[in-house]
């Protein structure tokens, strides 16, 4: 009814959590959404203690930080969630999410599985999507070809991937699992999962233009 409609417009679209093993293709798919839907999606920029990769920009890909500073802010309650992954600390600050949501955009959070668990304890109410690789062998090849990891960090990521692939298949953890084998097919599936929220943002934008 009308009051539910008004409430949903005021609350804005539901955020989206993209999770799944490192190398499964989350960033690739997210960049496709940002490219194709101008003014619809916004990325919640996480904080991390890991070193920047070549080409990564502070404040755009991550807020690159150090453990002391991050831990202090976590203790001060400034984070929605945080987790240790492959020897580094990662976390979503409240302000990163608020900045995106204040603009009426669909907020995308790219988090590993512990982050998913922690977000479930909040009132964020996102759509939970897990991006999965076709197999651990293909994941390993993608990670090696990406050329971002040392042998040690690659092995840690593969170990975390095995755990992720098992836990993600448990019922009720994710709203949808997408196997990213053919990229275009995976992208089509992702768009179809998000179409309701996309349409919501697009119609709100149109109404604003017409008023
Ligand atoms: N369907 C696909 N087929 C082949 N290669 C792919 C496919 N999807 C993504 N890739 C490639 O696999 C690599 C890993 O993808 P991407 O960096 O998007 O993964 P990710 O899940 O974001 O990883 P991380 O969690 O470590 O950030 C990239 O080099 C990307 O170009
Ligand atoms: N729990 C959280 N996990 C996060 C966050 N930001 C990123 N991640 C996850 O970390 C791994 C590794 O990322 P990489 O950029 O070093 O390859 C990956 O699974 C991300 O999803 C966060 O804020 N919280």
UniProtKB/TrEMBL annotation:
Which part of the chain is the Guanylate kinase-like domain?
13-195
* Cellular compartments per GO CC: cytosol; photoreceptor inner segment
Annotated GO molecular function terms are: ATP binding; GMP kinase activity
Q: What's the family?
A: Belongs to the guanylate kinase family.
Q: Where in the cell is it found?
A: Cytoplasm, Cytosol; Photoreceptor inner segment
Q: Subunit arrangement?
A: Monomer. Interacts with RD3.
Query: Which PROSITE patterns does this UniProt record tie to the protein?
Result: GUANYLATE_KINASE_2 (PS50052)
- UniProt protein name: Guanylate kinase
């Amino acid at each position: 009814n009308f009051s539910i409609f008004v409430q949903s417009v005021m609350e804005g679209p539901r955020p989206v959590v993209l999770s799944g093993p490192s190398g499964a293709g989350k960033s690739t798919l997210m960049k496709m959404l940002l490219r194709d839907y101008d003014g619809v999606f916004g990325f919640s920029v996480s904080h991390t203690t890991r070193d920047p990769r070549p080409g990564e920009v502070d404040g755009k890909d991550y807020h690159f930080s150090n453990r002391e500073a991050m831990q202090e802010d976590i203790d001060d309650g400034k984070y929605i969630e945080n987790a240790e992954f492959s020897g580094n600390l990662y976390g979503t600050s409240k302000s990163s999410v608020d900045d995106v949501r204040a603009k009426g955009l669909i907020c995308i959070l790219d988090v590993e599985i512990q982050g998913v668990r922690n977000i479930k304890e909040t009132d964020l109410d996102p759509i939970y999507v897990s991006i999965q690789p076709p197999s651990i062998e293909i994941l390993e090849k993608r990670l090696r070809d990406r050329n971002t990891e040392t042998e040690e960090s690659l092995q840690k990521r593969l170990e975390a991937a095995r755990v992720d692939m098992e836990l993600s298949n448990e019922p009720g953890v994710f709203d949808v699992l997408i196997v990213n084998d053919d990229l275009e097919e995976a992208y089509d599936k992702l768009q179809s999962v998000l179409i309701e929220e996309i349409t919501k943002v697009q119609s709100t934008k149109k109404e604003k233009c017409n008023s």
